[in-house]
Design brief:
This protein is mainly alpha-helical and about 100 residues long. It is built from 4 helices and no strands. The chain is elongated and about 50 Å long.
């Protein structure tokens, strides 16, 4: 199975879509409300946490299902998933949110 064919599987593209949604949520929240700390976490923070935590089991499922069968195609997909996850985590880390 090729990289592009494997990328079309839901367990491959869903974590990337969740990371993009989490990154968009953080950037929109910072753009509209600023990067200041609040006493209580808002809805955006809770949604971000759910998106980040929800993709971890999907990434694990992808790794357990596809790495033994097609490691040459699965490793680049896992790398893209990890990069997308790090991109979603980066604004929270660097802006101290």
């Amino acid at each position: 199975m090729a990289f592009s064919a494997l990328l079309k599987r839901p367990s491959a593209f869903l974590p990337m879509a969740m990371s993009v949604a989490a990154l968009t949520l953080v950037l929109a929240s910072v753009a509209f409300f600023g990067a200041g700390r609040e006493a209580d976490e808002g809805t955006a923070a809770h949604l971000w946490q759910l998106l980040i935590a929800g993709q971890l089991p999907v990434i694990a499922f992808f790794a357990f299902k596809w790495l033994p069968h097609v490691p040459r195609a699965a490793l680049p997909v896992l790398a893209v998933q990890v990069v997308a996850l790090l991109a979603a985590l980066a604004p929270v880390y660097f802006l101290h949110l």
